[in-house]
Amino acid sequence: MKDPRIETLADILVNYSAAVKKGDIVIIDFSGVKALPLVEAVYARCLRNGARYVEHNFSTEDLTRIFYEEAGEAQLSYFPKHRLEAMKKATAYIGISATENTQSYAALEMAKMVRRQQVLRSISDRRVDHTRWVVTRYPTAGLAQDARMSLSAFEDLYFKACNIDWPDFAKKITRLWRMVQRTREVRIVSSDTDLRFSKKGIPAVKSEGLRNMPDGEVFTAPVKDSIEGHITYNVPSLYYGKEFGGVRFEFRKGRIVDASCRLGAQKELEKILDADAGARYIGEFSFGLNKNIKTPMKNILFDEKICGSIHLTPGHAYKDADNGNRSSVHWDLVKMLQGDGEVYLDGRLVQKDGKFVVGELKGLNP
């Protein structure tokens, strides 16, 4: 018997997030066979909604691993123009991954993966900028293990975090969005962290279930050369299968001038930051707001939404909150502020120890 929560989520992804309608050209990219129940439910709804064409592309982490193990220079640098042309025709995009083994890429060369990401960047940019898109991570034993949960417990968390009333959520975060929208300067103070930046002239954006699933953020971006200070992140992060923890950045005129990590190889960290000129600048600052996500799971899509967290992202800026930074990298590194941290907007304390202290925002607290 199919889990009814899958049907609910498929409705959200198709009818709310991607808003698939008659005449649409839809691309469904999915990875891992465990995702099939959700993929099938999504595919059926796209057709029922009258989409003119629904393309579905399948992969696995093992196929990706084989590529990086075997690919030579000509294959790494080859640009699949046909994929870009397909994305140019698409009006909606739904990505669903079901990773079985989050360590599949741990032994691969970081330089190869970063290089390939650079080659494919224009395809992902086209998707982000010109389609109604949404991506999700379907529960697997591998993801549950990283989260230190049983599979059934992780499934419960996943569906609680995804299957919520997103239009109502959007209304509830509007006050914070307006506050961030009019803010000119941000300061973050916490353990081994003290930094400030300007966001003058850069808009704020509500993440309300339209692009990520689970979702729940209000984000903006710093003026590119304005960050001064340092930050130490306290949430471990997997980047192309390689784990980093205790990442620390020092900034001067917006640029990361010194980087270190307590967990992970320093040389691998440097390879990410040296991918291109934009990788050492920040492309996003965000508040995590999903009340059903409370602890780190080594999965960026979930961890960046932890209620009471912030993330400050090296790399590419979104055009909705654009500071002009361009990069093949977009690495959402997360800092939880519960019990240790303050966020100031234009000198006003708005969040302390992971909880909002301004009256009109207290409803966003766990």
- Count of domain modules: 2
Broad shape = globular
Into which percent range does the helicity of residues fall? 25-40%
Rg, Å, rounded: 20 Å
User: Can you count the helices?
Assistant: 12
The largest beta-sheet arranges its strands as 14-13-10-6-5-18-19-20
Task: Compute the number of strand runs.
Answer: 20
Main sheet characteristics: 8 strands, antiparallel
> Mean pLDDT, as a whole number?
95
Portion in beta strands: 25-35%
Distance between the termini: 34 Å
Secondary-structure-based class equals alpha+beta
Oligomer: single chain
Q: Low-confidence parts lasting 5 or more residues at pLDDT below 50?
A: none
Q: Can I get a quick summary?
A:
The protein has helices at 4-17, 36-48, 61-70, 73-77, 81-89, 110-130, 141-146, 151-162, 166-172, 174-182, 266-273, 300-303, and strands spanning 25-31, 53-59, 92-97, 132-137, 185-190, 193-198, 205-207, 212-213, 217-220, 228-232, 237-239, 242-244, 248-252, 255-260, 282-288, 309-314, 333-336, 342-345, 348-352, 355-356. The protein has 366 residues and is α+β, with helices and mostly antiparallel strands. A hairpin with a 2-residue loop joins β19 and β20.
